[in-house]
Amino acid sequence: MALSSSLLYQDYIKGTSPDELKIIANIKRFFECMTGDPEFRAEVESNMSGCGPLLESRGVFGVDPTQLMALFSRGSSEAEPSESDLQDKPQGLLWYRWCKTHEELRRAWRKRSDGTPNKRFNQWHRRQVNRCGSQLGNLTNEQLIHATVVFELTQGCSLQCPFCGLAAEPLKKVFPYTKENARLWREVLDVSVKHLGDTVGTGVCYWATDPTDNPDYLKFVADYGQKTGFYPQTTTSAPLRKLQWTQDLLGFRRQHNTSVDRFSVLSLDGLRRIHKTFSAEELLFTQLVLQYIDVMKKAMARSGRNRHSEVEQEGLETFKDHTIACVTGYLINMAKGTVRLISPCPPSEIAPLGYLVHTEGRFSNAGELDEFIAETMENCMPEHCGSEDILSFRCDLQYGVLANGFQLSNEYKSHKVEGKPYLIKLGGLISGGDLTFSQVLEEMSKESADILAVITTIQKLFSQGLLADKTACGGRV
Question: Span 116-381: which CATH code?
Answer without folding.
Answer: 3.20.20
